[in-house]
Amino acid sequence: MTLQLQNVTKRFGNFTAVHNLNLSVEQGTMYGFLGANGAGKTTTFRMILGLLNPNEGKITWNGGRISYATSAEIGYLPEERGLYPKMKVEDQLLFLAQLRGMSKTAAKAEMKKWLDRMEINHYAKKRVEELSKGNQQKIQVIASLIHQPKLLILDEPFSGLDPVNVEMLKSAILDFRNQGATILFSSHRMDHVEELCEQLSIIHHGNQIVSGTLRDVKRSFGKQNVRIKSDFDLSALDAVPGVTSVHKSIEGAVYQVESEAIAEKLLTAAMQSGPIRHFAIEEPSLQDIFIEKVGNEHA
Fold first, then answer.
1. With 90 as the cut, is the pLDDT of residue 294 above it?
2. How far apart are CA 175 and CA 98, in angstroms?
3. Global confidence as pTM
4. Is the N or the C terminus of the chain less surrounded, counting Cβ atoms within 10 Å?
């Protein structure tokens, strides 16, 4: 079951929100969809779900269009919360599960499993508005997963969660992927995308500016990071030709360089300043690539 977007464009009047977008997300794949605020991510998700119609291009899931008839196969976690604040948690989850075609008996069993897994079973009879933002996000997550969808679209799924609950949600998402689900998600946390996604795209002002496997995207960037830790002043290294950026910390600095030859020059210069405690050449992070492609204004 593959999700495909072919030359998809969406305009609102004279404003082009998404331009000529191409995506192919295979079954069992987790695909990262990245961009700054206003880049066109949520508009794309709404087109996939059929909430908006593209002006041009074609969107297919398993060879056909997504419609009410396929709703039982789709799970969607919106960035903005879509829960009923006055409704009790269990009533809400059962209602939403039945909208996705589940029987009440099956929905109750799945709800109990997920409330236990997310460690919030004691909130089942609470109204949503009585829960913290983080626990409301957990309820929203359960609502998107409870019917065991084959296509899962997650818009900023880790928003509002503390590190412990982020790990809990990562585990659940990975389980779905391992069971063969097709997953498309957006996140501002580049480290989460690096950890979870085999493929990714970066869009900027509606245009797809990076696309491919994580490995190919990093290799095509053409730069590396050099991490040096020292108890001595390394400021002289900032001026070494071929150093494109420097990020300093208490322990040392990370230098972005154009080649390994520049890395060797940095090592020589660092050793002239005094003994070094750590030296490593690292591949660029997705954060590095995102900042360069999209711009420091959105970092």
1. no
2. 23
3. 0.84
4. C
